[in-house]
Design brief:
By secondary structure, this protein is of the alpha/beta class. It is 34% helix and 14% strand. The chain contains ten helices and twelve strands.
Amino acid sequence: MSENSKPPVLVVLQLSGGNDFMNTLVPYNNPHYYDARKTIVIPEEDVLPINDTLGFNPNLASFKELYEDGDLAVVQGIGYPNSSRSHFRAMDIWHTCEPDIVATEGWVGKAIRELDPAKNNVLTGVNFGRGLPRAMAAPGVPVTSVNDLDNYGLLTGIDSKDDREAALDIFKSMYGPAMGSGPVMDYLAQTGEDVLRGSDQLKTVPANYHSDVEYGNSAIAGSLRDVARVHLADLGTRIFYTSQGGYDNHATQMPDHPKLLQDLSRAVMDFFQDIRDAGRSEEVIMLIFTEFGRRMRDNGSGTDHGSGGGAFIIGDRVNGGLYSEYPSIDPADWLYGEDLKHTIDFRGIYGTVLEQWLGVEAAPVVGGSFEQITPFSN
């Protein structure tokens, strides 16, 4: 936990679509990598090496800098047994920690309940993005979902009435099977009230924020700037959630994926520079995850859904380095003859940040006891 007088804060950043972990942390001198990847490949001379076997994608220069400074932990081979290749189901599993059933409560929502059992603060959990991630949804748990600090409110970034109703239909279709249509509408109504109460508190944030950091123009940069602004405003937020989309690179991966990583790398570095300049970085860590990795072999213009992905934990109090094991890329070890095997369960990584950082008992949140890592300095 954070040693200064401020309570520890977690920022969760979701890479939506399935990030290609093997082209993110590249096994640059392994011939099996180059045998499998004929087109969607990072040349050895372009890799930013961190040891004799692995190196960052050249568009992640900031990640390498954070790694070398000891502030970035790489969780290799993260996943779960019998990984789903469906975006919807895979993300649902990551959001609820329930691989076998459709669950009604998100893991972040359950953590917020533990952090604020009396529901004193509707800003204990804040999402930046349209709608509400399932990870934060738990009946009876107040959360605030903000499109951006100038257009706050659940779905307020949708101008057209038809578009808004369509978005609500999507939300109901996500939660209806598990909760029933009545509870879903009750939950949406309560969430709307929470958002209105939260937005009243957020109105003063932009005017009181001052920074010398110039963020990029990407959507993720804007979201992380909003996270920084709210964090620095001392409104009591303990968990922030946001996402960067675009990682479902079945085609045109070589032009698309590098730009995504470039935007991510800059946004994360700018965020930490911002809160460090303000002397408020000691109490913050960031968890970056994606719903699955990609296949070993490329398809000529991209990569298809796979498993054995990777996650990152970043912060001043993080002991940087490699955690768990990079999945074997020897074809003899491929899962189903085409995929990376996972080497650590994602629920253990959630448990790590819950127990070791936020001080929340993990088992009731993640649904059991799973192997944890030790990425935090005392």
